[in-house]
Amino acid sequence: MKPPTKPDPVAAALKMFALLEALAEEETVSLGDIARRSMTSKSTAYRLLQTMQELGYIERREDGEKYALTLKLYTLGAKVLARQADLIKVADRAMGVLSRKTQEAVNLGVLDAQTASVVYVHKFNSQYNLCMQSPIGKRNPLYSTSLGKVLLAWSESDERAALLPRLSYEKLAPNTITDAAVFAAQLEIIRRQGYAEEVEESEAGVRCLGAPIFDHAGRITAAVSLSFPAFRFEDARHDEYVAMLCGAGRQISEGLGFTGSHPFAS
User: Fold this and answer.
1) Is there a single domain that holds both residue 65 and residue 87?
2) Closest to 151 measured CA to CA, from 173, 121, 181, 179
3) Which of the four, 246, 258, 263, 266, has the lowest number of CB atoms within 10 Å?
């Protein structure tokens, strides 16, 4: 008799993470909703939920009818965030100064090579009511954001070569770059000028500038950006904005032990 086929561990892992993402969207979710959102059967969803419950990642709520995430995932995330603590601590002061000078949103992002995206790890909100919102932990494409462009432009050549073919170049806004050759050429321009620009490429009506942050070994470790609603960006102050932003990038880099020459010459 042929032995029963074991479940594909990769498929099982994908389903488990789909369940976690479904649970992360709301405080409590029913079994039916979880199965629907993760595109799996109720029986499969139930088995996976039971396993995650045994491991302490979820709990049953409301007389066992709904499920919710526990703080165990937060604990794991906090450990990852702690690894960025030095960067955030050093960046905080310079970002705060830039935010007060411009009254606009200032964001700090790092590269997530696994998902070929930029992750927002620290921010200062705009002092205006109408502004771009980038919650901590949010991911955005590398090709459509000033932060992502900077991270790619100064990444090691082998890492950049591995990441570029993975970009989707999906059109997200009026000016999104959808051509790989055009994007590669822009990365060279960014390296020469020392900063990146994004004009309604990730989101309609949003304009951003991005600058690199280097560590003690001279490797790019993060990027900092200044974001505006397009109507509030003053073209006459373009060079002033760039100088302030790149000055903040240089200050953060020096705080991390970088002693080289910053690519932007003010």
Assistant:
1) no
2) 121
3) 266
Percent of the chain with pLDDT over 70: 90
**pLDDT band per the 50, 70, 90 thresholds, residue 62:** low
List Cα–Cα distances, 20 to 7, 16, 87, 119, in angstroms: 19, 6, 28, 19
Kindly report the CATH number assigned to the domain that includes residue 129: 3.30.450.40
What amino acid occupies position 113? Answer: A
Residue written as token pair 């949103």: 105
pLDDT reading at 95 higher than 50: yes
Domain boundary (74, 99, 119) is at 74
Residue at token pair 């002693």: 259
Structural domain that includes position 172: 83-255
Q: Parallel, antiparallel, or unpaired for β 220-229 and 66-69?
A: unpaired
Contact, 209 vs 228, CB < 8 A?
Answer: no
State the Cα torsion 112-115-121-126 to the nearest 10°: 130
Geometric angle at alpha carbon 264, from 262 and 266, rounded to 5°: 110
Band of pLDDT at residue 260, cut at 50, 70 and 90: confident
**What distances in angstroms separate CA 245 from CA 49, 182, 266, one per listed residue?**
46, 25, 10
Domain termination site, one of 51, 74, 97:
74
Calpha distance 69→20 (Å, rounded): 8
* Token pair 């050429």 in the structure block, residue: 185
Strand 29-30 and strand 66-69: the pairing is antiparallel
| Residue type at 164 in one-letter notation | L
Read off the pLDDT of each residue in 113-136 and give the average, rounded to a whole number.
83
In this structure, the answer to whether residues 47 and 170 fall within a common structural domain is no
DSSP state of 216: T
Q: Give yes or no: residues 88 and 150 share one domain.
A: yes
Residue 35's CATH number: 1.10.10.10
